[in-house]
Amino acid sequence: MAEKVKIARQGMTWRHIAIVVTMCLSIFTAVGIIFTAAGLCYRPVAQHFGVPVSQVSLYITFVYLGQMAGGVPGGLLFDKFNAKTVCCVAAILVVVPYIGFAFYPAIWCYWVAGFIIGLGLAVVEFTMTAGILSRWFHTNYGTVTGIVFAFTGVGGVVWNLIGQIVLGPQLAGWHELYIIFSICMLVGTLPFIAIFVKRTPEECGTLPFGMPIDKEAMENELAAEEAIAKGEAEEGFRAKEVLKFPFFWTLLLGAGLLNTITTMSQLFATYVQFLGHEGWYGAEPLVALLLLSGTLEAFASAGQGGGKVLIGFIESHSLYAAQIIGYCGGVIGLLMMWWFPQILGEGGIWPMFFGGLFYGLAYACSTAMLPFLVRQVFGGRDFDKIYSWMISVFNGIGALGATGWALVAEGFGWHGFFIGGIIVLTITFGLLGYTWHAGDKARRKTWFKSDAELAAEAHKAVESA
Q1: Are 417 and 260 in contact (CB under 8 A)?
Q2: What pairs with residue 137 in β-bridges?
Q3: Cβ atoms < 10 Å from Cβ of 193
Q4: Cα separation, 393 vs 254, whole angstroms
Q5: Which residues constitute the domain of residue 157?
Q6: Do residues 176 and 317 share a domain?
Q7: Which of 196, 212, 293, 364 is a plausible cystine mate for 307, CB 3.0–4.6 Å?
Q8: Share of the chain above pLDDT 70, in %
Q9: Residue 274: closest CA among 224, 338, 356
Q10: What is the pLDDT of residues 395-434, one digit of tens each?
């Protein structure tokens, strides 16, 4: 038997590490602050301008709309011009409008700023991370990407805990908080992008991590991967086919509603501030919460960070089990946040916070389960196109949720907020459960073969030979 030749591959250099650190810091600061810490200042800004909280939260809706509008143009600019320049401009588009939150004279300025931030964030969050990391990591790309995006949850914990201290018990520090957050985003993005970002490692005299160093071996491996990719593309539904399937449309609606569940967390700080300053209707304010307005969202961020790992592990064994855990975690979390402060008063504060951890399991499904569900049901043939359709609806409905939940809380109170959340959660996982149930049946009748069926075919082929 011939001895297997070990191929020499590009190892991890300080350049590769610098790229990963740059991406982590960009996600940690820009995405962590913009999305997970948004709700800290809703209430004080609304009081400052004399408007409902929903008019303040509307800027997050414009952030989502800006991301939707900026995704394709950002990708084209990234491909056509210098990557470092495009990413630096995108970071500036995020930071400069954000620092204006401390000084804008009218609430409509927040909406315009939100849209501009979304344009920049589309590049920083998606185009830059995917475009750079995919070129720098020939192997372990999925692992590195998972590590980078885990910093969204880390940022949610850190920035909410810092933010509640700066805000103070009377929420008077919101001007300073916006300035501090802006400086943190500036330091965490622009210098690192300007110094370390290169479109390809070849520009730095190295190769993508894991790439064979020998030129012939590299060409052979890339050719083999291309052949495998073409083979995989033959399995699955075509994009035009899926439009006739009811479970495709339940996927789109379920994904969009799941994003509205994630946007509920942007109002957790407002809810805690309500409990601390006003208290449940007719009850005494929970003054112990005056310095803890960001803690519930911090727990929710920690829950979704750990939940991504848990859901990812479970769904590889059973998608039904992952969906059940996500749904039950979400319901239990919302009930704990809703009931414990009412029933136990200040004794229910920490159980309420731990409810945020459970809620994080439902939140985690938005990123950990949806891509897996799409690939399992529809296969790899037109995965990118089908997934992009889902993401468009995901962001579009999510944009409505960012303001919608504030309107629900204003119109129906916090009871309506949590009841509505449980109802939407139930509809969401009902739709996603049907998607998997019907989709699994359809794929088994067409393109999908289980491991047992493939083994049987291989055994039959051997016998025939």
Answers
A1: no
A2: 209
A3: 25
A4: 10
A5: 11-202
A6: no
A7: 364
A8: 91
A9: 338
A10: 889 889 989 999 999 999 999 999 999 999 999 999 999 9
